[in-house]
Amino acid sequence: MANVIIVGMQWGDEGKGKIVDLLCPAFDGVVRYQGGHNAGHTVKFRDRHFSLRLIPSGILHPNLLCVMGNGMVVAPDAFLQELDQLAAGGVAFDGRLFLSNRAHVLLPCHAALDVAREEARGANRIGTTSRGIGPAYEAKASRYGLRTGDLFSPQLEELLAVQVERAQAELATLGAGPLPPVSDYVELCRAWAARLLPVLADTEQLLNSAIDAGKSLLFEGAQGTLLDLDHGTYPYVTSSNSTAGGACTGTGVAPTRIDGAIGVLKAYTTRVGGGPFPGELTDARGEFLRERGNEFGTVTGRPRRCGWLDTVVARYARRLNGIDTVALTKLDVLDAFDEIPICTAYRLAGTVVHELPPDRWSLETVEPVLRTLKGWKTSTVGILDPADLPQAARDYLDFIEQELAVPISILSTGPRREETLIQPHPALVRLTSDRLGKVIEQR
Ligand code: GDP
Ligand code: IMO
Ligand code: MG
Questions:
Q1: Which of 72, 235, 270, 309 counts the highest number of beta carbons within 10 A?
Q2: Can you give the pLDDT at residue 301?
Q3: 76-88 vs 182-196: helix axis angle to the nearest 10?
Q4: Is 49 in the active site?
Q5: pLDDT value at position 407?
Q6: 259: exposed, middle or buried (C-beta count within 10 Å: 0-12, 13-18, 19+)?
Q7: Which residues pair with 412 in a beta bridge?
Q8: Cα of 434 from ligand 3 centre, angstroms
Q9: What pLDDT sits at residue 113?
């Protein structure tokens, strides 16, 4: 049995939802460990289409355990809405979906703060999803946050008063409108508490007991490596640890119980929101990538910024997350190009560097060093046998494998589960506990 972390290797939206859903037949449970409803994970199979924001992408597989860990910040209204949508879509979750009673509650005042702060930053705005993620994590780190378990506390009103009063004071300095009275928040929280009660659990115990019983867990990362609070392109990052290490702190499962990591890498690069993006294509080719790849945010609908694949970023992500094997997504989007450049290094003040500079000013000034490969100009959509891949596409994959020194064992050539080529590399066989046959069968 193996416990595996799935993590995005770029700036999010790599196709994690699709890959998690694909691999579910090899696992007994799926666990989200950080982030909130800033995430938007798309799952498509046959004629079904789901967009998941808080609930693990494993929910679409009947009988799979789904857990939202302590590292998340959860807006109960968004969560309840997602539950209603699943129920309307005929997805049953009773008795198999659990939310940590240590996860923090994201309140409407956090979203109000997020919006007002972004406005105040003007041109320097982070480009957040406006959901209140930063302020919710800030309350947690400042030790006045409200945890889901606190919704039942006799001190609920006092706990809420601290949050609302602090938010109100800051909003006033930013010239933003007044918040509703604390009593409104108390009422809201009481209503949420009643509906959340059946899913709240001590998920640390639940997950460790499942592992004790020989179950295999998949840890579903949200956002991506370059959006990690510590290792990303700070300050243009999210407010949690989206890299593999976050899976341990965000669930209470020890590093010694984790068996490996699968990195999800898009065949090109996108980023939504502000911040440095070496090699961003601001010309017609970027526009073409955006249209072909349908690169518009799942959460906010914003157009995503596009560029070629950047292996400086991908190598950094491989190392930081200890990636054993890669799931490469959206190869089909490149089907139409004559030539496909890859950024393999940066030029920084006249010097070629092969590592990501840690400071924002250097990152903003680097120029990409490109290596151009031939395009294949034919459709790869739905190819299931590597022998059917055009030679130029194989060369592209080989080049990436050499750059990263890890095998690509999953190749996605369309949004649907069926459009996935799976190669039984030893790393993938090990991480799927010899249940890869089941994955292929249910693809
Ligand atoms: P996530 O946040 O990492 O789960 O990714 P998103 O769901 O936000 O964005 C990925 C988008 O690409 C979704 O619309 C997917 O349906 C779509 N997608 C995933 N894999 C592929 C692929 O191989 N080809 C194409 N064309 N679309 C894909
Ligand atoms: P998934 O899980 C892409 C980006 C925002 C912004 C920065 C901070 O779908 O890959 P936040 O609201 O978190 O404070 O915003 O992070 N961001 C994402 N970009 N995919 C995501 O999630 C993201 N979640 C946050 O655009 O730049
Ligand atoms: Mg997304």
A1: 72
A2: 84
A3: 40
A4: no
A5: 98
A6: middle
A7: 420
A8: 29
A9: 98
Q: Is the CB of 134 under 6 A from ligand 2?
A: yes
Return d(Cα 261, Cα 228) in angstroms, integer. 16
- Give the range among 46-50, 123-127, 212-216 with minimum mean pLDDT: 46-50
Check pLDDT > 90 for residue 300: no
3-class SS at 341?
A: strand
Q: What is the number of the ligand closest to the CA of 417?
A: 1
User: Residue 12: nearest ligand to its CA?
Assistant: 2
Q: What is the DSSP pairing of strand 351-353 with strand 408-412? A: unpaired
**Beta strands per DSSP E along 53-187:** 65-68, 73-74, 97-100, 104-105
From the list 37, 41, 104, 110, the catalytic residue is 41
Distance 37 CA to ligand 2 centre (A): 9
* Average pLDDT of the chain, as a whole number: 97
Residue 299 has pLDDT above 80, yes or no: no
* Position in ligand 2 atom list of the atom nearest CA 35: 13
Residue 296's Cβ-side half-sphere holds a number of Cα atoms within 13 Å equal to 6
- Predicted local distance difference test score (pLDDT) of residue 206: 98
Strand, helix or coil at 32? Answer: strand
Residues with CB under 6 A from ligand 1: 8, 12-18, 40-42, 44, 298, 329-330, 332-333, 412-415
Based on DSSP, count helices (H) and strands (E) in the chain, helices before strands: 14, 20
Contact 203, 67 (CB under 8 A): yes
Cα 254 to Cα 223, 235, 247, 397: the distances in Å are 22, 28, 9, 34
The stretch 295-322 carries a mean pLDDT of: 94
The contacts of residue 207 (CB under 8 Å, 6+ apart) are 29, 31, 67, 69, 217, 251, 252, 253
Q: Element (H or E) spanning 314, and its range?
A: helix 311-321
**Count of C-beta atoms within a 10 Å radius of residue 197:** 11
User: Is residue 41 annotated as a catalytic residue, yes or no?
Assistant: yes
Read off the DSSP letter of residue 178.
P
The minimum-distance atom of ligand 1 relative to the CA of 331 is: 23
Is the confidence at residue 312, as pLDDT, over 80? Answer: yes
Report the separation in Å between the CA atom of 156 and the middle of ligand 3, taken as the mean of its atom positions.
33
390 has a pLDDT exceeding 80: yes
Q: pLDDT tens for residues 75-128?
A: 999 999 999 999 999 999 999 999 999 999 999 999 999 999 999 999 999 999
Distances (CA, A) of 110 to 68, 81, 86, 105, 127: 20, 18, 26, 10, 16
Which residue's CA is minimally distant from atom 5 of ligand 2?
A: 128
Q: Hey, which of 329, 417, 420 would you mutate to test ligand 1's pocket, going by the most ligand atoms within 8 Å of its Cβ?
A: 329
